[in-house]
Design a protein that fits this description.
eight-stranded antiparallel sheet; three-stranded antiparallel sheet; 2 domains; 2 helices; Elongation Factor Tu (Ef-tu), domain 3; globular; single chain; mainly beta; 228 residues
Length: 228
């Protein structure tokens, strides 16, 4: 665990971010650089708290020790494991950072308990829960890990409207299913009970239209609706 020693800016997803650096002061432990093959296999994944309760998962190929306990991480992959929406324009100095490795374990929470407030006591596992080293805290588990990933490869393949004046919006489905981690040709398997999408057509920050689609990875809407 550690804290950011410098501000961390937003960057691109689905490709390497070569313009930003993640500078952290670790409370303990060390970091090391990894190869791209190791990185793409899930190695070296720190989570950064971009806002209260929101964590962007970042992967870093290069880790350089620049001071005692301080590392500068570069060659980044941003918004990993479906956390693109947790990215912020600027994460300030002092924000929390946790390296996700085998030391991090999932809490034993059933689906029936999601959304319910829990009272926790947190402290060293080697000491009794009633000890003074434990701290009481409140925590409400959410359902982020059960939400579908956002789509990828969003495109409008033609610059001009097709007959009868419609534009086509296409995307590729993503899935949390382990079977989706394949390199073969074709769509990943559907791991949800149904397939439905909501698309917002925006003019900068202004929502011009909200469109819905289901059971297909293509959506059709008139050019007039997009431009008026």
């Amino acid at each position: 665990m550690g804290v950011l020693a410098a501000g961390f800016f937003a960057g691109p997803v689905s490709r390497f971010d070569l313009g930003n650096a993640l500078v952290v002061d670790l409370f303990s432990g060390t970091l090391e650089s990894v190869t791209d093959i190791m990185l793409l296999g899930g190695a070296h994944a720190p989570a950064v708290e971009t806002s209260p309760g929101q964590w962007e998962i970042v992967q870093a190929g290069s880790a350089e020790l620049i001071a005692a306990g301080r590392y500068r991480m570069t060659r980044l992959l941003r918004g990993q494991r479906g956390r693109e929406n947790a990215a912020a324009s600027l994460v300030p100095t002092g924000a929390l950072e946790v390296v996700l490795d085998n030391s991090v374990a999932s809490l034993p929470i059933s689906e029936a308990d999601l959304g319910l407030p829990w009272n926790w006591r947190v402290g060293p596992a080697s000491r009794p829960v009633s000890g003074e080293t434990y701290v009481a805290t409140n925590f409400t588990p959410e359902v982020a890990g059960l939400q579908p990933f956002s789509v990828a490869e969003l495109e409008q393949p033609w610059r001009t409207a097709r007959s009868p004046g419609d534009l086509t919006i296409r995307w590729a489905r993503r899935s949390r299913s382990l079977a989706a981690d394949i390199w073969g040709v074709g769509e990943v398997p559907l791991a949800e009970d149904s397939e439905a999408y909501e698309v917002e057509i925006r003019d900068k920050t202004v929502v011009k239209r909200t469109l819905t689609a289901s059971t297909t990875s293509a959506l059709y809407t008139s050019a007039q609706q997009i431009t008026d």
